[in-house]
Amino acid sequence: MEYEEPLFFRVMEYAAHADGDIVDMVSGNPDWGSPPAVAEGLHEYADTGGREFQYPPSEGLRELREEIAARRQVDESQVIVTNGGGEANYLAMGRALERNAGDEVVMTDPVYPYYPGKTTMLGGTQRFVETAADGSLDPEDVREAASEDTACILVNTPNNPTGAVYGEDAMREFVAIAEENDAILVSDEVYDHFDFSGEFASALQFDSPNRIVTNSFSKSLAITGFRVGYCIADEEHADPMKSRHMLTNVASSRPAQAAVLHALRETDADYYRESRELLRERVETFTAALDDAGAEYTTPDGAFYVMARFPDFPGTLENTYELIDEAGVAGMPGAGFGSARDDWLRFALVTPRVEEAADRLADYFA
Amino acid sequence: MEYEEPLFFRVMEYAAHADGDIVDMVSGNPDWGSPPAVAEGLHEYADTGGREFQYPPSEGLRELREEIAARRQVDESQVIVTNGGGEANYLAMGRALERNAGDEVVMTDPVYPYYPGKTTMLGGTQRFVETAADGSLDPEDVREAASEDTACILVNTPNNPTGAVYGEDAMREFVAIAEENDAILVSDEVYDHFDFSGEFASALQFDSPNRIVTNSFSKSLAITGFRVGYCIADEEHADPMKSRHMLTNVASSRPAQAAVLHALRETDADYYRESRELLRERVETFTAALDDAGAEYTTPDGAFYVMARFPDFPGTLENTYELIDEAGVAGMPGAGFGSARDDWLRFALVTPRVEEAADRLADYFA
């Protein structure tokens, strides 16, 4: 199966084996720490055993589904707890492609690299829509790309890698375009807690059988390794998605579900606000240094990535390696995210050394 | 998507809401408790945090893969840690069906109910081979069913639901038949620690690019809710299976992987032996009572189920409900496992009250 993700691993591998001190801005692994209730929840669960160590309901622990349903103001029957956002998108895209309502998945370029690979695995084909320079996605461009061949329109807001946040008007239009084309809008909202603009609008705001929302706790609770995510869909989609979930994974891992349930109950809004403020500061620090380095960039409205282009220094894999060796900063080549930004680099702001990295880049390009 | 598993849930639901005291012999959830090292491992992991809470390698924690590889005497690169045996079978069957080498999956009747559903989900078709009355599977019957349309031959040993254990000669033949037909033998060996016959032979004994072995720790460590399993395959299959794993789940849940790693290292052979001996005793107790009840049954050579047929009492869903209400014993109707045993009932020996259940059945049919 063709799949582009290994580029991430090649770069991480290279950075890990490089000489000298490297600031790692490759992965999307939060460095700011989980709320204490995650570990507490795991300890509590570890003390149970017996029946509590056996299969949870396939669609997720009832109390966790109830907690999610209450927060998202949907019925609990619409919630499926998944093995992270990855499985949530797999279930949603699988549902869109199994309806015999087209085999194309409309997605942006630049694109989160799992989306094209999942599309191929599920028997679909990709149709790319280019975003504006600031990462925004014009609904009219999506409307033009959509047709009776469209099974799925796949958006990610706040966006990895561009940092764009699609506002309420755009989201309403994406839902409408899905309805017009008998397609499913899959809205991947895993960075919803990292909106700096105040403009984020969940697709859940628009009641429609043509939209499925995916999310996870990987980023919001800084637990990418736990693999707890969820889908929200109307019953006509949720039922077959539950079957696919059962036939693929039986259920998601229960210790992680128990820890997330406890963390959701015991973590107050300060934790989320502080993580977001920390990232906002890192964005300011980093983009200021990019100015000093004469780089072109977009200030992200959300998520935790910055894409940048340095003068006469296209973001190839070779140049990525050169920055690791010569500047001591590891980013991701833009080619990892489709063709539209293949001369850019993506930097993940998941290190306390953002300022150090920024200084190094400014020095290197001075 | 069509799928037969809900029958399990209907029976469990019925038993849970029935009046009076019911002995639950429906599920496959071990009741004998996990080794203490499982909880210890979870506690240890909970005390880490930070980077340890982030993505493990997609194919599984390196030390866990090394531990599995050492135990199974294969190269670590052949091991993929999965979200339980369910995902392991999904990956293996997906690989067999994506090779453009046929679209049929040969499987037994009676059959573990997930297999037909997974086959349909993955775009394949089922071809059933009937087993003998004792659950044994004649390789010549498999050879006759196999053809150039065969993508996969799927066996489960020790077997759920029949309790059959396929010996070395049969397993050698299954591998050979896969080779003869350019197919993949998928050998699901999740009950390998529960062989009472001494005749169990893993497909790993036969070195061939045409066999993939799946397994899990759900039963052997009594942690069906943790979802930690694995596949072992030659590189030509392991690589695309790793891609499918990444595109479906990104990785398996890390807390559960860490707990299993610790448990494998710290649990001695006594734990496994004692669980097996406990089950062997339960088999004796239960089958003795079946004799008293005038039932036909097969004494299982492995796993932890007994299939039985009572005189003038076919194992329909209605009769299953009647046994719950009138005898206070909940089993599974044979129709849940294909057509060959649809007048039988399956009883899971996962309750300390096997003797009580046996007495109740003997009384009821006296």
Helix content of chain A: 40-55%
Rounded to an integer in angstroms, the radius of gyration calculated over CA atoms of chain A is: 20 Å
Distance between the termini of chain A: 43 Å
Task: List the domain count of chain A as a whole number.
Answer: 2
In percent terms, what proportion of residues of chain A is strand?
A: 15-25%
Identify the strand order in the major beta sheet of chain A. 2-8-7-6-5-3-4
Please give the oligomerization state of what you see.
Answer: homodimer
Order of helices and strands of chain A: HEHHEHEHEHEHEEEHHHEEHEEEH
Number of helices of chain A: 12
Q: Pick out the low-confidence regions of chain A.
A: none
| CA-based shape of chain A | globular
The averaged pLDDT of chain A comes out at 95
CATH superfamily of the largest domain in chain A: Type I PLP-dependent aspartate aminotransferase-like (Major domain)
Q: Which structural class fits the helix and strand makeup of chain A?
A: alpha/beta
**Highest-level CATH class of the largest domain in chain A:** Alpha Beta
Keywords (chains A, B): Aminotransferase, Pyridoxal phosphate, Transferase
EC number (chains A, B): 2.6.1.-
Enzyme class (chains A, B): transferase
Pfam families (chains A, B): Aminotran_1_2 (PF00155)
